[in-house]
Design goal:
Elements: H1 17-20, H2 33-45, E1 50-54, H3 61-73, E2 81-85, H4 92-103, E3 113-118, H5 125-137, E4 142-148, H6 156-159, E5 162-166, H7 172-186, E6 189-190, H8 194-202, H9 206-219, E7 222-223, H10 225-232, H11 236-248, H12 252-265, H13 270-280, H14 288-306, H15 311-333
Parallel strand pairs: 1-4, 1-5, 2-3, 3-4, 6-7
This protein binds adenosine-5'-diphosphate (ADP) and magnesium ion (MG).
Length: about 325
Amino acid sequence: MPEILAAGGFLSMSEIWTEKYRPRDFSDLYGQEDIVARAEAFVKEKNMPHLMFTGPAGTGKSSLSLIIVKKLYGGDWRSNYLELNASDERGIDIVRQKVKDFARTKSLNSNFKIIFLDEADALTREAQQALRRTMEMFTQTCRFILSCNYSSKIIDPIQSRCAVFRFKQLDKPAIENIVKNIAEKEGLKLEENIIYDLFAASEGDCRRLVNILQASAVISKEITSGLINQITKSSNNEDIKSIIENSLNGNFTKAKEMLLEIMLIQSLQGADIIKSIMKIIPNLSIDDKLKVRLIEKCGETEFRLVEGSDEFIQLEALLASFAIAGYKEKARAQ
Ligand SMILES: Nc1ncnc2c1ncn2[C@@H]1O[C@H](COP(=O)(O)OP(=O)(O)O)[C@@H](O)[C@H]1O
Ligand SMILES: [Mg+2]
Protein backbone atom coordinates (compact mmCIF):
# COMPACT_ATOMS: atom_id res chain seq x y z
CA MET A 1 0.00 0.00 0.00
CA PRO A 2 1.40 3.42 -0.79
CA GLU A 3 2.99 5.13 2.13
CA ILE A 4 0.68 8.13 2.24
CA LEU A 5 -2.36 5.91 2.61
CA ALA A 6 -0.74 3.56 5.10
CA ALA A 7 -2.54 2.28 8.17
CA GLY A 8 -5.88 2.99 6.57
CA GLY A 9 -5.30 6.53 7.72
CA PHE A 10 -6.67 9.74 6.42
CA LEU A 11 -4.40 12.17 4.72
CA SER A 12 -3.42 14.84 7.19
CA MET A 13 -2.25 18.29 6.15
CA SER A 14 1.38 17.51 6.95
CA GLU A 15 1.30 14.64 4.49
CA ILE A 16 0.18 16.82 1.63
CA TRP A 17 3.35 17.80 -0.12
CA THR A 18 2.27 21.35 -0.93
CA GLU A 19 2.17 21.88 2.86
CA LYS A 20 5.18 19.71 3.66
CA TYR A 21 7.26 21.61 1.11
CA ARG A 22 5.79 25.04 1.61
CA PRO A 23 8.75 27.47 1.55
CA ARG A 24 9.76 28.23 5.17
CA ASP A 25 12.46 30.79 4.48
CA PHE A 26 13.11 33.50 1.90
CA SER A 27 15.71 31.29 0.25
CA ASP A 28 13.15 28.48 -0.26
CA LEU A 29 11.04 30.67 -2.49
CA TYR A 30 12.28 30.09 -6.01
CA GLY A 31 11.97 32.26 -9.09
CA GLN A 32 10.90 35.48 -7.32
CA GLU A 33 14.31 37.03 -6.53
CA ASP A 34 13.33 40.70 -6.82
CA ILE A 35 10.27 40.28 -4.69
CA VAL A 36 12.14 38.34 -2.04
CA ALA A 37 14.84 41.03 -1.83
CA ARG A 38 12.22 43.75 -1.25
CA ALA A 39 10.38 41.68 1.36
CA GLU A 40 13.63 40.95 3.20
CA ALA A 41 14.37 44.67 3.35
CA PHE A 42 11.00 45.37 5.01
CA VAL A 43 11.57 42.65 7.55
CA LYS A 44 15.02 44.02 8.35
CA GLU A 45 13.54 47.48 8.92
CA LYS A 46 10.79 45.91 11.02
CA ASN A 47 8.40 48.16 9.16
CA MET A 48 6.36 47.91 6.02
CA PRO A 49 3.56 49.63 4.10
CA HIS A 50 0.42 47.81 3.00
CA LEU A 51 1.39 45.24 0.39
CA MET A 52 -0.37 43.89 -2.66
CA PHE A 53 0.73 40.50 -3.98
CA THR A 54 -0.48 39.93 -7.49
CA GLY A 55 0.16 37.10 -9.94
CA PRO A 56 -0.92 33.64 -11.09
CA ALA A 57 -1.89 30.80 -8.73
CA GLY A 58 0.84 28.73 -7.16
CA THR A 59 3.66 31.23 -7.42
CA GLY A 60 4.28 31.79 -3.71
CA LYS A 61 1.98 34.63 -2.60
CA SER A 62 0.52 32.95 0.49
CA SER A 63 3.88 31.39 1.29
CA LEU A 64 5.74 34.72 1.23
CA SER A 65 3.13 36.29 3.45
CA LEU A 66 3.65 33.56 6.06
CA ILE A 67 7.43 33.87 5.85
CA ILE A 68 7.26 37.63 6.44
CA VAL A 69 4.99 37.19 9.44
CA LYS A 70 7.10 34.47 11.01
CA LYS A 71 10.26 36.52 10.53
CA LEU A 72 8.67 39.62 12.04
CA TYR A 73 7.04 38.03 15.08
CA GLY A 74 8.86 34.75 15.62
CA GLY A 75 7.01 32.37 17.95
CA ASP A 76 4.23 34.91 18.56
CA TRP A 77 3.22 35.17 14.93
CA ARG A 78 -0.19 33.60 15.40
CA SER A 79 -1.51 36.36 17.63
CA ASN A 80 -0.25 38.98 15.19
CA TYR A 81 -1.65 37.50 12.01
CA LEU A 82 -5.15 37.25 10.62
CA GLU A 83 -5.76 35.36 7.42
CA LEU A 84 -9.01 35.96 5.54
CA ASN A 85 -10.26 34.83 2.17
CA ALA A 86 -12.42 37.36 0.38
CA SER A 87 -14.36 34.71 -1.49
CA ASP A 88 -15.08 32.64 1.66
CA GLU A 89 -16.17 35.44 3.92
CA ARG A 90 -19.69 36.23 2.87
CA GLY A 91 -19.50 39.93 2.17
CA ILE A 92 -17.32 42.82 3.13
CA ASP A 93 -19.21 43.37 6.40
CA ILE A 94 -17.87 40.11 7.78
CA VAL A 95 -14.36 41.01 6.65
CA ARG A 96 -14.70 44.39 8.39
CA GLN A 97 -16.03 42.86 11.60
CA LYS A 98 -13.19 40.35 11.74
CA VAL A 99 -10.64 43.07 11.04
CA LYS A 100 -12.17 45.23 13.77
CA ASP A 101 -12.07 42.46 16.36
CA PHE A 102 -8.50 41.63 15.46
CA ALA A 103 -7.28 45.22 15.31
CA ARG A 104 -8.85 46.18 18.62
CA THR A 105 -5.90 44.92 20.63
CA LYS A 106 -2.42 46.23 19.99
CA SER A 107 0.43 43.98 19.06
CA LEU A 108 2.70 43.28 22.03
CA ASN A 109 5.71 42.68 19.84
CA SER A 110 5.54 45.36 17.23
CA ASN A 111 3.86 48.55 16.07
CA PHE A 112 1.46 46.70 13.86
CA LYS A 113 -0.29 43.41 13.19
CA ILE A 114 -0.75 41.90 9.75
CA ILE A 115 -3.95 40.97 7.94
CA PHE A 116 -3.66 38.76 4.88
CA LEU A 117 -6.66 39.02 2.58
CA ASP A 118 -6.55 36.30 -0.06
CA GLU A 119 -8.47 36.59 -3.34
CA ALA A 120 -9.02 40.31 -2.81
CA ASP A 121 -10.02 40.56 -6.48
CA ALA A 122 -13.17 38.60 -5.64
CA LEU A 123 -14.54 41.73 -3.92
CA THR A 124 -16.89 43.99 -5.87
CA ARG A 125 -15.86 47.59 -6.44
CA GLU A 126 -18.23 48.75 -3.70
CA ALA A 127 -16.79 46.22 -1.29
CA GLN A 128 -13.31 47.41 -2.22
CA GLN A 129 -14.31 50.98 -1.34
CA ALA A 130 -15.40 49.73 2.07
CA LEU A 131 -12.13 47.83 2.36
CA ARG A 132 -10.18 50.99 1.57
CA ARG A 133 -11.94 52.81 4.40
CA THR A 134 -11.21 49.93 6.76
CA MET A 135 -7.55 49.98 5.76
CA GLU A 136 -7.40 53.67 6.55
CA MET A 137 -9.22 53.33 9.83
CA PHE A 138 -6.74 50.77 11.18
CA THR A 139 -3.59 51.98 9.53
CA GLN A 140 -2.04 52.81 12.92
CA THR A 141 -2.26 49.25 14.17
CA CYS A 142 -2.47 47.05 11.09
CA ARG A 143 -0.84 46.41 7.75
CA PHE A 144 -2.74 44.63 5.03
CA ILE A 145 -1.30 42.16 2.56
CA LEU A 146 -3.81 41.82 -0.26
CA SER A 147 -3.38 38.86 -2.57
CA CYS A 148 -4.97 38.62 -6.01
CA ASN A 149 -4.52 37.12 -9.45
CA TYR A 150 -5.22 40.31 -11.38
CA SER A 151 -4.13 43.72 -10.12
CA SER A 152 -6.37 45.35 -12.73
CA LYS A 153 -9.39 44.21 -10.74
CA ILE A 154 -8.31 46.21 -7.70
CA ILE A 155 -9.46 49.83 -7.54
CA ASP A 156 -6.82 52.54 -7.91
CA PRO A 157 -7.24 54.07 -4.44
CA ILE A 158 -6.25 50.71 -2.93
CA GLN A 159 -3.40 50.08 -5.38
CA SER A 160 -1.94 53.50 -4.68
CA ARG A 161 -1.87 52.76 -0.94
CA CYS A 162 0.08 49.52 -1.38
CA ALA A 163 3.57 48.52 -2.40
CA VAL A 164 2.78 46.21 -5.31
CA PHE A 165 4.64 42.91 -5.67
CA ARG A 166 4.19 41.22 -9.05
CA PHE A 167 4.75 37.47 -8.80
CA LYS A 168 6.00 35.78 -11.96
CA GLN A 169 4.93 32.43 -13.28
CA LEU A 170 7.76 30.06 -12.37
CA ASP A 171 10.29 29.44 -15.14
CA LYS A 172 12.00 26.18 -15.95
CA PRO A 173 15.11 26.64 -13.78
CA ALA A 174 12.89 27.41 -10.77
CA ILE A 175 10.71 24.37 -11.44
CA GLU A 176 13.82 22.24 -11.80
CA ASN A 177 15.13 23.36 -8.41
CA ILE A 178 11.86 22.60 -6.69
CA VAL A 179 11.54 19.17 -8.30
CA LYS A 180 15.12 18.20 -7.47
CA ASN A 181 14.72 19.24 -3.86
CA ILE A 182 11.57 17.16 -3.39
CA ALA A 183 12.99 14.21 -5.34
CA GLU A 184 16.01 14.11 -3.05
CA LYS A 185 13.96 14.25 0.15
CA GLU A 186 11.38 11.69 -1.02
CA GLY A 187 13.85 9.34 -2.72
CA LEU A 188 12.32 9.76 -6.17
CA LYS A 189 14.18 8.67 -9.28
CA LEU A 190 13.77 11.18 -12.10
CA GLU A 191 13.84 10.08 -15.72
CA GLU A 192 16.23 12.14 -17.86
CA ASN A 193 14.62 15.31 -19.20
CA ILE A 194 11.53 14.77 -17.04
CA ILE A 195 11.70 18.46 -16.14
CA TYR A 196 10.33 19.30 -19.60
CA ASP A 197 7.22 17.18 -18.99
CA LEU A 198 6.74 18.50 -15.48
CA PHE A 199 7.21 22.07 -16.62
CA ALA A 200 4.59 21.65 -19.35
CA ALA A 201 2.14 19.83 -17.09
CA SER A 202 2.45 22.36 -14.27
CA GLU A 203 1.66 25.36 -16.48
CA GLY A 204 3.91 27.38 -14.16
CA ASP A 205 1.60 26.68 -11.20
CA CYS A 206 3.80 25.32 -8.49
CA ARG A 207 0.95 23.90 -6.43
CA ARG A 208 -0.07 21.86 -9.44
CA LEU A 209 3.53 20.81 -9.97
CA VAL A 210 3.92 19.52 -6.42
CA ASN A 211 0.52 17.78 -6.56
CA ILE A 212 1.47 16.03 -9.80
CA LEU A 213 4.69 14.84 -8.22
CA GLN A 214 2.92 13.50 -5.15
CA ALA A 215 0.24 11.73 -7.15
CA SER A 216 2.93 10.17 -9.36
CA ALA A 217 4.93 9.05 -6.35
CA VAL A 218 1.85 7.21 -5.02
CA ILE A 219 2.12 4.99 -8.08
CA SER A 220 5.88 4.77 -8.47
CA LYS A 221 9.06 6.31 -7.11
CA GLU A 222 10.39 6.33 -10.65
CA ILE A 223 9.02 9.45 -12.23
CA THR A 224 8.79 8.93 -15.98
CA SER A 225 7.15 10.92 -18.71
CA GLY A 226 4.64 8.08 -19.24
CA LEU A 227 3.64 8.28 -15.59
CA ILE A 228 3.18 12.05 -15.76
CA ASN A 229 0.99 11.59 -18.80
CA GLN A 230 -1.10 8.98 -17.09
CA ILE A 231 -1.57 11.23 -14.07
CA THR A 232 -2.48 14.41 -15.90
CA LYS A 233 -4.78 13.10 -18.61
CA SER A 234 -8.21 14.31 -17.67
CA SER A 235 -10.90 11.69 -17.61
CA ASN A 236 -13.07 12.80 -14.75
CA ASN A 237 -16.23 10.87 -15.25
CA GLU A 238 -14.56 7.56 -16.03
CA ASP A 239 -12.41 7.97 -12.93
CA ILE A 240 -15.33 8.82 -10.70
CA LYS A 241 -17.37 5.93 -12.06
CA SER A 242 -14.51 3.62 -11.30
CA ILE A 243 -14.23 5.04 -7.76
CA ILE A 244 -17.91 4.28 -7.10
CA GLU A 245 -17.65 0.77 -8.56
CA ASN A 246 -14.55 -0.02 -6.54
CA SER A 247 -16.25 1.09 -3.33
CA LEU A 248 -19.38 -0.94 -4.05
CA ASN A 249 -17.24 -3.99 -4.75
CA GLY A 250 -15.38 -3.60 -1.48
CA ASN A 251 -12.10 -2.38 -3.01
CA PHE A 252 -12.06 0.47 -0.57
CA THR A 253 -8.31 1.10 -0.62
CA LYS A 254 -8.26 1.35 -4.38
CA ALA A 255 -11.21 3.73 -4.33
CA LYS A 256 -9.49 5.94 -1.75
CA GLU A 257 -6.30 6.07 -3.79
CA MET A 258 -8.20 7.14 -6.87
CA LEU A 259 -10.12 9.76 -4.92
CA LEU A 260 -6.91 11.21 -3.58
CA GLU A 261 -5.46 11.32 -7.06
CA ILE A 262 -8.32 13.22 -8.64
CA MET A 263 -8.57 15.62 -5.72
CA LEU A 264 -4.88 16.43 -5.88
CA ILE A 265 -4.37 16.49 -9.61
CA GLN A 266 -7.54 17.71 -11.11
CA SER A 267 -7.94 20.00 -8.10
CA LEU A 268 -11.58 19.02 -7.91
CA GLN A 269 -13.60 20.43 -5.05
CA GLY A 270 -15.52 18.03 -2.84
CA ALA A 271 -18.85 19.53 -3.90
CA ASP A 272 -18.02 18.96 -7.59
CA ILE A 273 -17.10 15.37 -6.95
CA ILE A 274 -20.39 14.77 -5.16
CA LYS A 275 -22.29 16.30 -8.06
CA SER A 276 -20.49 14.03 -10.53
CA ILE A 277 -21.18 11.01 -8.33
CA MET A 278 -24.88 11.88 -8.23
CA LYS A 279 -25.00 12.16 -12.00
CA ILE A 280 -23.30 8.83 -12.52
CA ILE A 281 -25.29 6.73 -10.01
CA PRO A 282 -28.53 6.56 -12.06
CA ASN A 283 -26.58 5.06 -14.97
CA LEU A 284 -24.91 2.30 -13.01
CA SER A 285 -26.10 -1.25 -13.58
CA ILE A 286 -27.16 -1.83 -9.98
CA ASP A 287 -30.46 -2.37 -8.21
CA ASP A 288 -32.74 0.68 -8.09
CA LYS A 289 -33.11 0.50 -4.31
CA LEU A 290 -29.36 0.59 -3.94
CA LYS A 291 -29.21 3.66 -6.20
CA VAL A 292 -31.69 5.42 -3.93
CA ARG A 293 -29.63 4.61 -0.87
CA LEU A 294 -26.44 5.92 -2.48
CA ILE A 295 -28.08 9.16 -3.60
CA GLU A 296 -29.35 9.68 -0.07
CA LYS A 297 -25.82 9.27 1.30
CA CYS A 298 -24.58 11.83 -1.22
CA GLY A 299 -27.13 14.31 0.04
CA GLU A 300 -25.93 13.89 3.62
CA THR A 301 -22.31 14.34 2.62
CA GLU A 302 -23.07 17.40 0.55
CA PHE A 303 -24.77 18.95 3.56
CA ARG A 304 -21.73 18.31 5.75
CA LEU A 305 -19.41 19.86 3.17
CA VAL A 306 -21.53 22.98 2.97
CA GLU A 307 -21.30 23.18 6.75
CA GLY A 308 -17.53 23.23 6.40
CA SER A 309 -16.40 19.69 7.26
CA ASP A 310 -13.08 18.35 5.99
CA GLU A 311 -13.49 17.29 2.35
CA PHE A 312 -11.14 14.30 2.37
CA ILE A 313 -12.68 12.85 5.49
CA GLN A 314 -16.26 13.34 4.32
CA LEU A 315 -15.63 11.87 0.89
CA GLU A 316 -13.77 8.90 2.34
CA ALA A 317 -16.66 8.36 4.73
CA LEU A 318 -19.03 8.50 1.76
CA LEU A 319 -17.00 5.81 -0.02
CA ALA A 320 -17.07 3.74 3.16
CA SER A 321 -20.85 4.00 3.27
CA PHE A 322 -20.96 2.87 -0.39
CA ALA A 323 -18.83 -0.12 0.54
CA ILE A 324 -21.22 -1.02 3.36
CA ALA A 325 -24.23 -0.63 1.05
CA GLY A 326 -22.43 -2.87 -1.45
CA TYR A 327 -21.82 -5.60 1.16
CA LYS A 328 -25.44 -5.51 2.29
CA GLU A 329 -26.66 -5.76 -1.26
CA LYS A 330 -24.47 -8.79 -1.89
CA ALA A 331 -25.63 -10.44 1.32
CA ARG A 332 -29.25 -9.84 0.34
CA ALA A 333 -28.79 -11.24 -3.16
CA GLN A 334 -27.27 -14.48 -1.87
N1 LIG B 1 8.10 30.35 -5.60
C1 LIG B 1 7.93 29.11 -5.06
N2 LIG B 1 9.01 28.38 -4.69
C2 LIG B 1 8.83 27.16 -4.16
N3 LIG B 1 7.64 26.55 -3.97
C3 LIG B 1 6.54 27.23 -4.33
C4 LIG B 1 6.63 28.55 -4.88
N4 LIG B 1 5.38 28.98 -5.14
C5 LIG B 1 4.55 28.01 -4.77
N5 LIG B 1 5.24 26.94 -4.28
C6 LIG B 1 4.64 25.66 -3.86
O1 LIG B 1 3.24 25.74 -4.11
C7 LIG B 1 2.50 25.71 -2.88
C8 LIG B 1 1.41 26.77 -2.93
O2 LIG B 1 1.99 28.06 -2.95
P1 LIG B 1 1.23 29.37 -2.46
O3 LIG B 1 2.24 30.24 -1.79
O4 LIG B 1 0.04 28.99 -1.65
O5 LIG B 1 0.79 29.99 -3.86
P2 LIG B 1 -0.20 31.19 -4.17
O6 LIG B 1 -0.61 31.80 -2.88
O7 LIG B 1 0.61 32.12 -5.05
O8 LIG B 1 -1.33 30.57 -4.94
C9 LIG B 1 3.54 25.95 -1.81
O9 LIG B 1 3.21 25.29 -0.62
C10 LIG B 1 4.79 25.35 -2.39
O10 LIG B 1 4.76 23.94 -2.25
MG1 LIG C 1 -2.58 31.59 -2.03
